[in-house]
Specification:
Radius of gyration: 32 Å
Helix content: 25-40%
Distance between the termini: 48 Å
Number of strands: 11
CATH topology of the largest domain: Umud Fragment, subunit A
CATH class of the largest domain: Mainly Beta
Strand order of the largest sheet: 1-2-11-3-4-9-10
Number of helices: 2
CATH architecture of the largest domain: Ribbon
CATH superfamily of the largest domain: Umud Fragment, subunit A
Number of domains: 2
Length: 224
């Protein structure tokens, strides 16, 4: 085998594998999953100020009742420079109403084990009856006494609902996904650097001058 060939082969294998791992991890992190620091207590106790919320990208069509979502609506919250986090209570076609004491979904009292203090209304003055238009969402915070949500924007029309396509991400509890993405990026960088180093070493070994064999000593011919 030519000098350095084994190192070069190792480099050819590891370098592209490392690059693929790194690119895959970056793309998955950018376009699939993320993490956010919670900046308010409107979703307490589910998420409190300073918590890390792990999220996944989601299409509008895949948003379901009960999902905690992050959405962008700058015309409603012009002073907030980050996505808003709230819980989906009703989707297109649902009827959401409150008598100031309880919240009802399609005529049935809504069971909400996640509420702050077990209080479903927070503000007893907010009595409403909203039929959620198709393609829109009725959203509330889990801390009903400290959440500026759909209840307070009903005068905008559409019952204070939010367009479903304003949703960017949905929270999930599997933080291991983020660690796996980070591990993939770390392994990708390691493999790429190792592959590059092996390839370079193999190239340098292959370019080393070959030793010139020393001439054999001349043996004097026997005199006759």
């Amino acid at each position: 085998m030519r000098p350095g060939r084994g190192l070069r082969i190792t480099g050819w294998v590891l370098l592209p594998v490392g690059i693929l791992l790194l690119v895959g991890a970056v793309l998955t992190g950018v376009y699939g999953y993320s993490a956010h620091k919670v900046a308010s207590d409107s979703m307490s106790p589910t998420y409190t100020r300073g918590d890390t919320a792990y999220t996944e990208m989601v299409d509008a069509a895949d948003v379901r009742r009960g999902d905690v979502v992050l959405y962008n609506l700058p015309e409603r919250y012009p002073e907030v420079g980050a996505p808003i986090m709230q819980r989906v209570i009703g989707v297109g076609g649902d009827r959401v109403n409150s008598d100031g004491r309880r919240v009802f979904l399609n005529g049935e009292p809504l069971v909400e084990s996640y509420l702050s203090g077990g209080d479903p209304v927070g503000d007893t003055t907010q009595v409403y009856d909203v039929k959620v238009p198709e393609g829109r969402l009725f959203l509330l915070g889990d801390n009903r006494g400290n959440s500026l949500d759909s209840r307070y924007f009903r005068d905008e029309g559409n019952g204070g609902t939010v367009p479903a396509d304003a949703v960017l991400e949905r929270t999930h509890d599997n933080e291991a996904v983020i660690y796996v993405i980070g591990l993939g990026a770390f392994l990708g960088i390691g493999a790429a650097l190792t592959g590059f180093g092996c390839g370079l070493a193999g190239w340098l070994v292959g370019r080393r001058p070959k030793p010139v064999p020393a001439p054999s000593p001349r043996v004097p011919s026997p005199q006759g």
